[in-house]
Amino acid sequence: MDYNTLNVLSLAYLGDAIYEIYVRKYLIEIGISKVELLQKEAIKYVSAKEQAKFLKQLIEKNFFDEEEQSIINRARNHKGNRHPKNTDIVTYKHSTGLEAVIGYLYLNSKIERINEIMDYILKGD
């Protein structure tokens, strides 16, 4: 299957799940064990606002290659207007871009690249 032509919202759907796993694993690894605290800390990474912020930082650092940037752009430019009540459409589309590129990388078995992105997000590397 050619993942370059897959619907970007499908990529984002998968990417959201992968992203969430990385965040949850990281929080447990740093020693957070209470579920209430895990949930509270996870929001610092998984909210659309935070994902959009991380994406903008990575773009400013020219972190993404041309192929990855193409996926991000397709996701940000997707014509849908639906978004959660607690965020604006621009922020939501940026967060969708981050999720889409992670989904794309996962489907292409580029786990090391996902690790690089998530290390930056989680550890500031």
Explain what you see:
The protein is an all-alpha fold and 125 residues long. It has a single domain, classed as Ribonuclease III domain (Ribonuclease iii, N-terminal Endonuclease Domain, Chain A, Orthogonal Bundle), CATH 1.10.1520.10. The chain is built from six helices and no strands. The longest helix has 22 residues. The protein starts with 7 loop residues before the first helix and ends with a helix. The model has no long low-confidence stretch (mean pLDDT 91).
Mind describing the biggest β-sheet? Answer: none
Order of helices and strands: HHHHHH
Name of the CATH superfamily: Ribonuclease III domain
How many strand segments?
Answer: 0
Helicity range: over 70%
**Approximate shape:** globular
Number of helices: 6
Assigned CATH architecture: Orthogonal Bundle
What is the CA-CA span between the terminal residues? 33 Å
Instruction: Please give the CATH class.
Output: Mainly Alpha
Low-confidence stretches: none
**Radius of gyration from the CA trace?**
14 Å
Q: How many domains?
A: 1
Instruction: Give the rounded overall mean pLDDT.
Output: 91
CATH topology: Ribonuclease iii, N-terminal Endonuclease Domain, Chain A
Which structural category do the helix and sheet elements fall into?
mainly alpha
The fraction of residues assigned to DSSP E strands is under 5%
